[in-house]
Structure formats: structure tokens, C-alpha cells
Amino acid sequence: MLKSTVLAIAAAGLASSAFAADHSAIRRQIAKLDPQTRLEQRCNGRAIGRIARERKGMSPEEVVAYAFADTIKSEHAMKAPGAAFRSKGKWYHLSYNCHTTDDNMSIVSFDYRIGAVVPRSEWSKHYLVP
């Protein structure tokens, strides 16, 4: 019993170390993007993370910020009034407001609203893939 507990703790430590290393590598790659691309990537990533944590039964995989309307960007803020996200093979309407730090690496504030399911017949017209 003690041996299996020690192994489980060691495995958890390795997993969290691997996660930290992966997270650090991802942050380095994002930092290489131009500021406006970085802004969009960080905001889309926050949308995925928040929906996954806060909405039971949803597993967001992808966000298209400009699916139904152009995004509105300033240097460190982005509004996506016509976004969409995919979860478990379905696309959903999404809108969000996102503000970042001066380097566009960290989110200062983020709010979102999920809308209705997007009918499959509309997917290709709005850059949504299966």
C-alpha cells in the first residue's frame, strides 16, 4: 500500500513538472507572436479554459473569434461579438470581451456569453469545421 502511494505521489509530481514545462514552452512560443495575434490567441485560450471549467458537460476544443462578426481590437483589448466555439462535435455561438496586460501575455479581465447551437448547415459559411 505504501509503495503504491509513493508511486502515485511521484507520478503526480512528474505530471505536474511536465505540465509546468509544457506551459512554459507554450508561453515562450506565444511570446514570439506579433502582439495582435498574441492578443487573439490568449483571449481565445481564456474562452476555452473558462467554458471548460464553468460549463458542465462542455469540452471546448476550438474558438473562431470572427465567425459571425468581425472582432473589435485595440492594443490590449478585444471584443468578439460574433465568435463561436466547438464542443463535442457541435458549434455554439459565443461573444466575449477580453483585456490583457501591456505585453498581451496575461488576461486582466474576461467575460463571455454562450448562445445557441449553430446549425450544421451554417458551418462552412462561417469558417466552422467538423
Using brief descriptors, characterize the structure shown.
130 residues; alpha+beta; Nuclear Transport Factor 2, Chain: A; five-stranded antiparallel sheet; 5 strands; globular; disordered N terminus
Helix content: 25-40%
Under CATH, the topology of the largest domain is which?
Nuclear Transport Factor 2, Chain: A
The biggest sheet, with number of strands, parallel, antiparallel or mixed sense and barrel status, is:
5 strands, antiparallel
Number of strands: 5
Total discrete domains: 2
Between the first and last Cα atoms, what is the distance in angstroms?
46 Å
- Total of helices: 2
CATH architecture of the largest domain: Roll
CATH class category of the largest domain: Alpha Beta
What Rg, in angstroms, do the CA atoms define?
A: 18 Å
* Average of pLDDT: 87
**Percent of residues in beta strands?**
25-35%
Helix-strand category: alpha+beta
What is the secondary structure topology, with strand pairs?
Layout lengths: L1 H30 L3 H20 L5 E5 L7 E2 L3 E11 L2 E11 L6 E11 L13
Antiparallel strand pairs: 1-3, 2-3, 3-4, 4-5
In short:
With about 130 residues, this protein is an alpha+beta fold. It has helices at about 1-30, 35-55; strands at about 60-65, 70-75, 75-85, 90-100, 105-115. Strands 1, 2, 3, 4 and 5 form a five-stranded antiparallel β-sheet that branches.
